[in-house]
Amino acid sequence: MSQPITPVRATNEGPLTRALLIGLALLFLGFFLLLPLLAVFSEALKMGVGPFLDAIHTPDALAAIRLTLFIAAISVPLNMVFGLAASWAITKFQFPGKALLITLIDLPFSVSPVVSGLIFVLLFGANGVFGAWLAAHDLKIIFAVPGIVLATVFITFPFVARELIPLMMEQGKDDEEAAISLGASGWQTFWHVTLPNIRWALLYGVLLCNARAMGEFGAVSVVSGHIRGETNTMPLHVEILYNEYDFVGAFAVASLLALLALVTLVVKSVLEWRFDLHAGARH
Fold it and tell me: pLDDT tens-digit profile of 131-145?
């Protein structure tokens, strides 16, 4: 008669050690995450709902909100297309420079956002490499919306690719090769085979990319020029209001960013759950 299998514990820590580790984790999260969030909403509503709504409905605040959403609406689709193309190329083909492409994808993670913004200034500023040509053709990139788009795209382009590459490497090329052997075209193979297999990871990468695009400060601060109502995104508008001692206005706009972060966290958790279910079904 077979003996029942006793589950093997992954660790040997006692109950006291586990309780201590869990307590430290909760304390850390409470101090560095929950407490700042509570402080933001508390300060935003300190004077009541009326001043809170008035701060959000000012022309400068509305312009910052519109610009933030506009920048995200441009940069996220661009990075989604780039992430799909780069992931497809890296995981499905062998070509010269493949290792270099993987390294370049990680470049924004290793370069300070401020340095990234400065690079664009050196390239497209009035005294930059292309400054004279841009001035001759009456084109303005730095201290204008195009510069903010460029800086945001650069900062956020690794997110989609970095979510897709490990998954597509794990999945291999068998499904695509089978589809092609059955007469499917490249587009049909991508649309009916590859995309369904990566859709949850793709949505997850897009979500992270969107969150970073709306919350980016360093690179955007360098290239924006801080022009009220024109080139100020929500994070930049928060900084200006705080420096002017308009704390209610600053925290009101910051609370919108915090709400976006919370919504992102909820959607992220849902996508992780769906992705885990999908991965479990495949295995």
Answer: 899 999 889 999 999
* Contact call for residues 123 and 130 (beta carbons, < 8 A): yes
Residue 101 contacts by C-beta under 8 Å, 6 or more apart in sequence? 86, 89, 90
Q: Quote the pLDDT of residue 151.
A: 94
CA distance 68 to 71: 5
Instruction: Give the DSSP H/E element, type plus range, for residue 274.
Output: helix 247-282
Residue 157, judged by CB atoms within 10 A of its CB (0-12, 13-18, 19+), counts as buried
Assess whether pLDDT exceeds 90 at residue 59.
yes
Nearest to 179 by CA among 171, 169, 187: 187
pLDDT at site 74: 95
- d(CA 133, CA 135) in angstroms, rounded, equals 5
Burial degree of 71 (CB within 10 A; 0-12, 13-18, 19+)? buried
Token look-up 């204008």 returns: 144
Q: CA torsion sign, 243 to 223 to 75 to 207?
A: negative
pLDDT for 277 beyond 80:
no
Which tokens in the block code for residue 72? 């995200």
CA distance 112 to 24: 30
